[in-house]
Amino acid sequence: MPCLTSSPSRTYSSTSAAAMLALVVMSGCTQTSPTPAVAEKPVQPGLVVPMQGGEVTARLLIPEPVEMNKMFVLPVRLEDKQGRVIERARVEVNATMPEHGHGMMTEPKPSTQMECDTKGICLAKDGQFLLDGFRLHMPGSWLFSVKVVTQKDTISGEARYEF
Ligand SMILES: [Cu+2]
Q1: DSSP secondary-structure letter at 135?
Q2: Burial code of 19-42, b = ≥16 C-beta within 10 A, e = fewer?
Q3: Residue 68 resides in a domain
Q4: Residue 39 domain flag
Q5: Does some domain include residue 40?
Q6: Are 91 and 24 in the same domain?
Q7: Ligand 1: distance of its center to the CA of 100 in Å?
Q8: Does 88 share its domain with 133?
Q9: Within a 10 A sphere around the Cβ of 116, how many other Cβ atoms?
């Protein structure tokens, strides 16, 4: 029996759609729903870094597009479990290419726009920690490592960025 596929341009009544779904299931076909033509935009864009050691979400708002060899500022957004912005933290981010055994040729640090104390704990500006001094000098797979120190926790994580 050939695999039934539904076309997004055609509409079905709920009954015939259900019947069709049943047929598809019975025929062992896994394509049950058409892919929407327009993907939904995420509410908060950026590279989400899975963090360990605390319930914090770190989002790296890497500028799009990143230009080869050009310095850029990386805004980092930290949210707690309830989605509230974390306002005070020390945020350290580095980028390396593990497969090549090298990092960047620059050393990121908090932007001069940030208010930081002597321990490097900064106050978020409009919900973002701005880190200056990123420069990706070659295309490939970069590993962004994030370390966050809040009043409660020290947490860290990493995520890949294909450049
Ligand atoms: Cu490299």
Answers
A1: -
A2: eeeeebeeeeeeeeeeeeeeeeee
A3: yes
A4: no
A5: no
A6: no
A7: 5
A8: yes
A9: 17
* Span 41-87, pLDDT tens digits: 545 679 999 999 988 999 999 998 899 999 999 999 999 989 999 99
How close is the Cα of 42 to the center of ligand 1, in Å?
30
Whether 63 and 133 map to the same domain: the answer is yes
Domain boundaries, position 148: 47-162
Measured CA to CA, the distance from residue 46 to residue 22 in angstroms comes to 38
Contact status, residue 117 vs residue 89, Cβ threshold 8 Å: no
Q: How many domains does the chain divide into?
A: 2
Q: Mean pLDDT across the stretch 101-130?
A: 96
Q: Is the pTM of this model over 0.90?
A: no
Quote the ligand 1 centre to 141 CA distance (angstroms). 8
Q: Is the pLDDT of residue 153 over 50?
A: yes
Report the alpha-carbon distance of residue 31 to residue 36 in Å, rounded: 13
Q: What is the mean pLDDT of the chain?
A: 82
d(CA 134, ligand 1 centre) in Å:
14
Same domain, 53 and 25: no
Output the domain CATH number for residue 155.
2.60.40
Please indicate, yes or no, whether residues 27 and 53 belong to a single structural domain of this protein: no
Burial of 148 (0-12, 13-18, 19+ CB in 10 A): buried
